[in-house]
Amino acid sequence: MNKFLESVYFRHSCKLFDENKKIPKEMFDEILEVGRLSPSSFGLEPTRLLVLRSDEAKAALRPLCWNQPQITTASEVVIFKSLQNDLVPPSEYTKQNTFRRKMDLGAYQAFCDRLGGYLKERGLDSGESLAHWSSKQAYIMATYMVAYASFLGIDTCYIEGYEKKEVEKLYGLDPFKEQVSLIVCFGYRGKEQQPRYRISLDDLVEYK
């Protein structure tokens, strides 16, 4: 079995981390770099990360995450924030995103037309639909980071059970600019992995 597939079998949703075991900074920096290099729709890179390392920061978050022990036992807790209205062109964000790729004004206008048309045609240009589309980009980044963490022998747990508005209030987020899409805990397991059950490939895959 190749190393990557071994890491896939290694990964599980770790419900309790060893709070005395910390991830070395250089290893966690690599995980962050993998996230930075992950793909996003239209290359917009709409995800921002808030990393909680201190016991105080994690303790403040835990009550808003249904009091789940992963929050305070993990080495690092990463909050994935997703940009909102700035993603809809024309905006200063989309302008800077385009110009850093050394496109001229004509190319920027073409990009705005293409992106704006895509969002409007699918009803993704405002409100909950925009938030949902932006959050999907955060999940792509999180998946890359979790996969690489597993490759390094680091455990993870996706956290979707949290009080979204309260978490955003805790960090002073303006929901028209940024929203919390996902929380992921990183650390080392505090107990052995439980058996994992998945449907078979025959049930999963259909060929035409």
What does it look like?
By secondary structure, the protein is of the alpha+beta class. 44% of the residues lie in helices and 14% in strands. Strands 1-2-4-3 form a 4-stranded antiparallel beta sheet, sandwiched between helices. Helix 1 packs across helix 7. The mean pLDDT is 96.
> In CATH terms, what is the fold-level topology of the largest domain?
NADH Oxidase
Q: Could you tell me the strand content as a percent range?
A: 5-15%
> What is the spatial order of strands in the main beta sheet?
1-2-4-3
The CATH class designation of the largest domain is: Alpha Beta
**Shape summary:** globular
Q: Kindly name the structural category.
A: alpha+beta
Count of helical stretches: 9
Give the secondary structure arrangement, pairings included.
Blueprint lengths: L2 H8 L14 H12 L10 E6 L2 H7 L8 H4 L2 E8 L8 H8 L5 H17 L5 H25 L3 E5 L4 H7 L7 E10 L13 H4 L4
Antiparallel strand pairs: 1-2, 2-4, 3-4
Helix pairs in contact: 1-7, 2-7, 5-6
Compose a concise summary of this entry:
The protein has helices spanning 3-10, 25-36, 55-61, 70-73, 92-99, 105-121, 127-151, 164-170, 201-204, and strands spanning 47-52, 76-83, 155-159, 178-187. With 208 residues, the protein is an alpha+beta fold. It has two domains: 3-85 and 126-203, NADH Oxidase (3-Layer(aba) Sandwich); 89-123.
